[in-house]
């Protein structure tokens, strides 16, 4: 008699809620005002990984709602204009949702290029918003100092896609 | 009839469409939030209550989640202190030897300055009370430079309070709840601070741009800033006390004047919040509400020195008043002589030269004591 095999169900809890909580925790930890060997901690926009991975894994109503909440969290936590990061992240999510058929099957460099383009677009949008609101453009070097750590998070997005994208054609 | 029994029983909406609806609604909501979020006059936000609630929640959570990072930071500091103790000791000894004459000079200047203030009757600013706080979390990005402090309104912190560390001005409080408060740094892109150049007393505006060195804008006067000039808070507008050290002027690579902040000389983890609101704080409100001349009944008897100083000042004022009256009379006489020369034939009276001299403070005008060494 064959023993029953436990089937591991991958639901929204696994691919939406837990990653969102990890993103919140990582943002809080990286905001610690501590210096390690004379250097401050980097400050990437961690939810950018989720904004890139979630629409490619599968369309969902929960994911954009959680992403919107994550954007508001960033604005409140970093004391930014309320709605700025929510708008930027939702913009990335919306673009990828529309382009997911185009991106299906692509891996490696093409996918990374999309990640770079989406990240740069979101930061450009945020840059314009802050410039208009403050009447004062932020420093470019400082901007690069946040873009680069965000781009370095791409392996996490790639891992999420490999882990949760089940290739179900019903979602294509 | 239930919905599932109707004509829409077999209707299936693609998931992409439903997700797109959520995206559109979220984008609209985010846009509305962005448009409606305005800065208040006191530096706070129109969503101050929401931000305060979020800070109240994230403050303790940050303290717990960030504890391991702090421990690692403390370990690295310990290791660094162990290996660099000798060089640090040499540097501190040299610094101490250099600062010793400055300390003596500062004590002497403080004494002289206090005497001048007393003699001239200057209304000096009272000492501002301050409380120590610890930074819980830190935003270091290009769009926001802010810190969350572990003190709030229960300790007297209010929106607008300046924040300093042991080196100089760090920023200002823009949001305060019971237990935590939000401080915006001088380097934040929305930060504007009125400053002065210590050497020339020229005014300028310190404008943050998300970098470590904020810009110096609207500098008044040609050549009023040089590399190495000390920049202090000017106190213009009443938001900050005058004279808080901020940094040193330097030319940026883009040709603009920038300020190397003193506060960056060390980690901005422990800070002090100045419980300073505006110039209204400098006057005792009860004294303003007291009836006229109420202080005369309670004032102590002046000492002999004070009585002599008072008599001296009164005599000088009388002499000045007499000289002024004499000058007025002369001016009237000369006007009358000009209007009708046939009537006014008499010689114009001369003013006593000793009475027309301007009033000088006791001790006479002396050069600034000490001076920069």
Description of the molecule:
The complex is a heterodimer of chains A (172) and B (373). Chain A is mainly alpha-helical and 172 residues long. Chain A has helices spanning 12-30, 47-57, 62-78, 84-98, 100-103, 109-134, 140-151, 154-164; strands at 35-36, 39-40. Chain A has one domain (12-28, 42-164). Chain A is built from eight helices and two strands; from the N terminus they run H-E-E-H-H-H-H-H-H-H. A two-stranded antiparallel sheet of chain A has the order 1-2. In chain A, a hairpin with a 2-residue loop joins strand 1 and strand 2. In chain A, helix 1 packs parallel to helix 3 (62-78), helix 2 runs parallel beside helix 8 (154-164) and helix 6 (109-134) packs antiparallel against helix 7 (140-151). The longest helix of chain A has 26 residues, at 109-134. The model of chain A has no long low-confidence stretch (mean pLDDT 88). Chain B is of the alpha+beta class and 373 residues long. Chain B has a domain at 130-279: Rod shape-determining protein MreC, domain 1 (Thrombin, subunit H, Beta Barrel). In chain B, strand 10 (245-251) and strand 11 form a beta hairpin. The radius of gyration of chain B is 31 Å and the shape is extended. The relative contact order of chain B is 0.09. Chain A: The chain crosses the membrane at residues 12-30, 61-78, 84-103, 112-134, 140-161. Chain A: This is Rod shape-determining protein MreD. Chain A: It comes from Brevundimonas aurantiaca. Chain A: Keywords: Membrane, Transmembrane, Transmembrane helix.
What level of helicity do the residues of chain B show? 25-40%
CATH superfamily label of the domain at 130-279 in chain B: Rod shape-determining protein MreC, domain 1
Please tally the helical runs of chain B, counting DSSP H or I stretches of 4 or more residues.
Answer: 7
Radius of gyration of chain B: 31 Å
Strand coverage percent of chain A: under 5%
Question: What is the CA–CA distance across the termini of chain A?
Answer: 39 Å
What CATH calls the topology of the domain at 130-279 in chain B is: Thrombin, subunit H
**Helical segment tally of chain A?**
8
Helix proportion of chain A: 55-70%
User: Looking across the biggest beta sheet of chain A, what order are the strands in?
Assistant: 1-2
The profile of the biggest β sheet of chain A is: 2 strands, antiparallel
Unreliably modeled segments of chain A: none
Q: Mean pLDDT of chain A, nearest integer?
A: 88
Keywords (chain A): Membrane, Transmembrane, Transmembrane helix
Transmembrane segments (chain A): 12-30, 61-78, 84-103, 112-134, 140-161
Protein name (chain A): Rod shape-determining protein MreD
Biased composition (Low complexity) (chain B): 330-339
């Amino acid at each position: 008699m064959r023993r029953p095999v436990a089937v591991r169900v991958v639901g929204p809890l696994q691919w939406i809620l837990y990653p969102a909580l990890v993103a919140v925790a990582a943002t809080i930890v990286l905001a610690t005002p501590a210096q390690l060997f004379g250097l401050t901690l980097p400050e990437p926009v961690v939810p950018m990984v989720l904004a890139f991975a979630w629409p490619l894994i599968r369309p969902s109503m929960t994911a954009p709602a959680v992403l919107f909440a994550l954007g508001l969290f960033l604005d409140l936590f970093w004391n930014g204009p309320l709605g700025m990061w929510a708008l930027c992240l939702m913009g990335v999510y919306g673009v990828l949702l529309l382009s997911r058929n185009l991106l299906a099957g692509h891996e490696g460099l093409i996918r990374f290029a999309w990640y770079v383009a989406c990240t740069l677009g979101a930061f450009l949008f945020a840059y314009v918003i802050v410039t208009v609101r403050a009447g004062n453009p932020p420093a470019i070097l400082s901007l690069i100092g946040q873009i680069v750590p965000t781009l370095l998070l791409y392996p996490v997005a790639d891992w999420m896609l490999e882990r949760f994208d089940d290739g179900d054609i019903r979602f294509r | 009839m239930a919905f599932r029994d109707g004509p829409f029983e077999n209707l299936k909406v693609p998931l992409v469409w439903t997700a797109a609806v959520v995206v559109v609604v979220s984008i609209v909501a985010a846009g509305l939030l962005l448009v409606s979020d305005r800065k208040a006059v006191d530096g706070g936000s129109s969503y101050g209550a929401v931000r305060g609630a979020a800070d109240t929640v994230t403050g303790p959570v940050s303290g717990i989640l960030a504890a391991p990072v702090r421990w690692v930071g403390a370990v690295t500091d310990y290791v660094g202190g162990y290996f660099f103790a000798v060089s640090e000791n040499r540097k501190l000894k040299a610094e101490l030897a250099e600062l010793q004459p400055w300390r003596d000079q500062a004590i002497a200047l403080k004494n002289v300055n206090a005497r001048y203030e007393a003699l001239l009757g200057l209304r000096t600013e009272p000492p501002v009370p301050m409380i120590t706080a610890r930074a819980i979390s830190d935003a270091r990005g290009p769009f926001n430079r802010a810190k969350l402090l572990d003190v709030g309104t229960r300790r007297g912190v209010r929106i607008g309070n300046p924040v300093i560390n042991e080196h100089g001005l760090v920023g200002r409080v823009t949001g305060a709840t019971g237990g935590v408060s939000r401080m915006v740094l001088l380097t934040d892109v929305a930060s504007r601070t009125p400053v002065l150049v210590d050497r020339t007393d020229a005014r300028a505006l310190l404008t943050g741009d998300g970098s470590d060195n904020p810009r110096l804008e609207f500098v008044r006067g040609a050549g009023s800033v040089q590399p190495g000039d000390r920049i202090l808070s000017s106190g213009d507008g009443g938001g900050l006390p005058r004279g808080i050290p901020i940094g040193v002027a330097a030319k940026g690579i883009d040709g603009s004047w920038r300020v190397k902040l003193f506060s960056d000389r060390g980690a901005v983890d422990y800070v002090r919040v100045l419980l300073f609101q505006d110039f209204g704080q400098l006057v005792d409100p009860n004294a303003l509400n007291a009836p006229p001349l109420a202080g005369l009944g309670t004032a102590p008897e002046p000492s002999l020195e004070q009585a002599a100083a008072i008599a001296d000042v009164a005599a000088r004022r009388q002499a000045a008043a007499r000289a002024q009256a004499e000058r007025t009379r002369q001016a009237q006489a000369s006007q009358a002589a000009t209007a009708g020369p046939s009537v006014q034939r008499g010689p114009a009276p001369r003013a006593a030269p000793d009475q027309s001299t301007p009033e000088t403070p006791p001790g006479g005008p002396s050069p600034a004591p000490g001076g920069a060494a």
